[in-house]
Amino acid sequence: MYDLAILNGILIDPEAGRLIPANLYCRDGKIAEISREVHEATQTLDAKGDYISPGFIDIHAHIEGSAYPGSLLALQGVTTVINGNCGLGLADLPSFFEEQNRKGFILNQLELSGASTLRERAGLQDRYAPLSPAQLEQACGMLREDLEAGAAGLSFGLEYMPGSSREEVLALSRVAARYGKPVTIHTRTDCFTGLAALQEAIDISRFTGAGVQISHVVYQYGFGMMKLALAMIDDAVKSGLDISCDSGMYTSFATAIGSAVFDEGCLEKWRCGYDAILAATGKYAGQRLNRDTFEELRRETPSETAIALIGNPHEILMAFDLPYMMISSDCGVNKEPDPSYGHPQDAGTFPRFIRQLVRKTGRLTLADAVARATILPAKRMDLDVKGRITPGSDADLVIFSLDELTDRSQFPHLGSPAAPPEGIRAVAIAGKITVENGVISGENPGKAVLSPNRIWHYTA
Predict the structure, then answer these.
(1) Residue 178's CB: how many other CB atoms inside 10 A?
(2) Residue 305: helix, strand or coil by DSSP?
(3) In this structure, what are the phi and psi dihedrals at residue 230, rounded to the nearest 5 degrees?
(4) pLDDT single digits (tens) 191-207
(5) Fewer Cβ neighbours under 10 Å: the N or C end of the chain?
(6) Which of 404, 279, 419, 277 has the alpha carbon at shortest distance from 344?
(7) What does the DSSP 8-state code read for residue 451?
(8) What SS3 state is found at 452?
(9) How far apart are the first and last CA of the chain?
């Protein structure tokens, strides 16, 4: 007797690049059998010819145990999320891990140690200043503690912390490299000056040996320099550096209105006016800003989120011409269950990716697209039993109809950023159904995934 049977589906094996008509059986949270036999199970789902994929892994998000954005990702088919990106990690990872594993969650979560958080924990509050030698030593020590506690790697948000020195970037990255854990990086700036910032990110791997994950590439380089940015990344990979990258499905990013991203000169750099800045949360949610409202929000409510309606949409698809470009959502804007708040990335990224790259344009095969959301991030994050659809792997699964898979979320001035997608039939974590036909089951089988704590040794 199996715990869960999924019958009459077409399995997507992203590692082998194959589509396989078969039945899938789960027991004790694992995939137990894939065959064309029919067995009894406690719970049976008939896939009716729909696709069965490993659960999607979102390599760049900001959930940190928040139930509402977690549910928005689950409704898309995401089963595992990597948090703490852009330098914005948690200050007390051991407590977070303990709490999540005690309570459970709708997703599995990995946590990065954030460099911006380490700066603050070391006593530096000025984002325009570098760490002192004593503070840097302290930050490196705290990073070691985080990694030994199970943090999945180190993240930088250099655009948010302009004072971060090259010395501190490399020193912290060397700590991550010692443990064989990746460094994710929101580069120091975007647009054409961002190409120099991209070289800085590449040099982290060159000088420290750390694996580097370049974050949300379209948000950084989708302004007319995508072709150049991709060439730089690919040249680095072909030269032997351990570089990979991810991108979302929008050019219009969202971040705190009081962050350094919106410092003086940003509009000139983006070649736009104040009306290209859209309030995503707060009193002006859904409204385009003007000079007065922009300065008011920066001064009085700097933590509210704004969306920059900028970039070249045609460059989104270009990003995925790199075979190792993964899909990511940057989810975490929609913290409150208010349908007028937020960014459509939180509810629509993964269905939008498959719909546009596979069904609409044919730019990727279905197996390749699924690989960008499963096996590629699993390998980057050293997740040996996730992102795969083989016996013994975790029974984290998503069943979807390719013909019906559609994102419905909109920017807040056009519609609801939280509108759930269509076409997701069911989602399971550890063999337990968390979503079925657009309804969240209430099961919380997700856990905090602790990254292996070991000193790196080379194995060919």
Answers:
(1) 15
(2) strand
(3) -65, -40
(4) 888 899 999 999 999 99
(5) C
(6) 419
(7) P
(8) coil
(9) 41
